[in-house]
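step: validate -> pass
step: tokenize input -> pass
step: predict -> running
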Amino acid sequence: MKTILLIILTSAIISSGCIEKTEMLNLSIVKEPDIRGNDTAIKVAISSVISPKESINYYEGLIQYISSKLGRPIKIIHRRTYQEINDMVKKGEIDFAFVCSGPYVEGNDEFGMKLLVVPESYGKNTYYSYIIVPRNSNYTNLSDLRGKRFAFTDPLSNTGWLYPAYRLSLINETPESFFGADEKFRNNFFYTYSHDNSIIAVAEGVAEGAAVNSRVYEYMKFEKPDIIQQTRIIEVSQPFANPPVVVSGDVDPLFEQRLKDIFLNMDKDEEGKKILSRIMIDRFVTLNDSNYDPIREMRNSIK
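step: predict -> pass
step: emit ->
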């Protein structure tokens, strides 16, 4: 069963960068290499915080709302890795993006990726890294997972890679030294490229531990309770500034301000409130870049 599920997860991960085209009112999934061309539609990229199908379910209403407020069609672009999304923002191939906090810090430091807004949930604009294990296991802390099979999310993920890697660095370990390798010298850790895939890997016994985004975990409590019930949290990180909505450093100022106004006022009308409620967001707020300094400090410490 574990082998079969690992094959299924691996297949899903490999195929996640090439999604079937889906029409959703004035939305569509873009997968062509030439993203811009002569297409005048607004392009939004969604990082693989959750898998492609779940991303569409999660973001569909929100993107439709923004499209209606702008009076222009929006096309959603989904890519397998966080780095691919950062590269598109850097090249100006997309107009705005939903990214993880780790890639934001990387992009801001590398090419001036700009914060637009940040979601606030339960009155907080922070989230956590959860270290999770199978519910029926005996593991109680990260040290118990030495030599075990572990699921990371993405090499640029804050909660799904950076935090656990930083934790290991504090005891003079790396993922390679701590988790080890099998008899064929393959690492005992792997990347799932979405937090829900990491949670599923633990729930089904493909991995004995994983580091995941708390917002995704809490969202799945409502959407996939049967999966969450098969897992258990053994560690919660310090709070980090929530994954932001971003734009490129050379975005048109008028478009940037218009988009920001839509996000910031979304909770002030009934339609917007309903959409936000469905995705467990109170409202969008602005944050200073300095809120992400703790992530920079962890990254610099490991480097």
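step: describe -> The domain at 2-10+126-240 is CATH 3.40.190.10 (D-Maltodextrin-Binding Protein; domain 2).
step: cleanup -> pass
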